[in-house]
Design goal:
about 140 residues, alpha+beta, Thiol Ester Dehydrase, Chain A, two-stranded antiparallel sheet, elongated
Length: about 140
Amino acid sequence: MAFTYRRTIRFADTDAAGVVFFPNYFAICHEAYEESLAAAGIELQSFFGEHAVVVPVSKSQAEYLRPLTCGDKISVTLTPTLLGPDTYAISFELHRLGPPQKLAARLRTEHVCISSRSRERHALPEAIAAWINAQSA
């Protein structure tokens, strides 16, 4: 089942035109990603150190449909998808809450799991694989 994160757009998220600065959409989505992992019981502070892996973004894309401005209430819905034994994607939808509720952006990131020491590909830790399966079911 997809995970939904709610948030208010802050002044610091916006640019001189008063709308969310385009890279900040990715920062907001990353907040939602972290909250989803925390809700699944994955404590980030210790998790990656214990498993000696990292899961950097290897690809990203975004489609901006409507501007978001300071004070807007939004929801970010994320759905991870397993791509392989060491890779996954996360699809994000950002909605400005209404009424009426309006889709503001779609983003997607792809991640690859690698050893933090060798930088070689590494199988996803069981907890991450379980998180993906639980969120995409």
